[in-house]
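Weekly sync, protein design subgroup
Attendees: M.S., D.O., the rotation student, P.L. (late)

Item 1: inverse folding check
M.S. brought a backbone from last month's batch and wanted to see whether the design step gives back something sensible before we order anything. D.O. pointed out we never logged the input encoding, so this time it goes straight into the notes. Structure tokens as presented (164 positions):
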């Protein structure tokens, strides 16, 4: 093969490679641009739904949305004869509506007082069983809802639960 043919062949390969690279860049740019547009549209839709939900104008969606809030840990002496056993627990509240969270936060001192009195009325053996903890959950829900004067709390979850 002559030098001239080799040069023409290498030039052809180089042109083909550059053309392939150009096509690949063109396709990638189109794909990335389209992906960016899809992300922007999704973000815009999400923002619109959030705005609609905030203003109560969601399309066919519930006006309410469940929200959670955590209460600071409780440490109480249990109702034992010698008074030497205590309970340490942290509660996570699941609320029916987003605006219920504000009411819970405003009533926190009254809620904590009511829950502390309830917890300190319990004996360790009552709370050792799953049934006892389940019953306590139901009592806490009733107590908090009664304290704030409405059905705001849907569920109570024990984040930690220690009896000593």
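Designed sequence read out in the meeting:
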């Amino acid at each position: 093969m002559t030098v001239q043919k080799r040069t023409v062949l290498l030039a052809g390969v180089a042109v083909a490679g550059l053309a392939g690279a150009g096509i690949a860049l063109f396709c990638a740019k189109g794909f990335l641009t389209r992906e960016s547009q899809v992300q922007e549209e999704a973000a815009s839709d999400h923002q619109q739904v959030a705005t609609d939900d905030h203003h109560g104008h969601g399309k066919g969606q519930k006006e309410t949305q469940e929200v959670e809030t955590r209460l600071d840990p409780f440490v109480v002496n249990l109702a034992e004869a010698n008074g030497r056993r205590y309970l340490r627990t942290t509660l996570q509240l699941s609320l029916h509506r987003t605006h219920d969270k504000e009411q819970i936060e405003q009533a926190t001192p009254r809620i904590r007082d009511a829950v502390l009195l309830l917890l300190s009325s319990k004996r360790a053996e009552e709370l050792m069983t799953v049934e006892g903890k389940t019953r306590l959950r139901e009592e806490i829900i009733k107590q908090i809802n009664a304290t704030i004067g409405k059905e705001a709390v849907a569920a109570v979850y024990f984040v930690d639960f220690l009896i000593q």
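Discussion: Helices lie at 3-55, 100-106, 108-120, 124-127, 130-148. Residues 3-55 form the longest helix (53 residues).
Action: P.L. to compare against the previous round before Friday.
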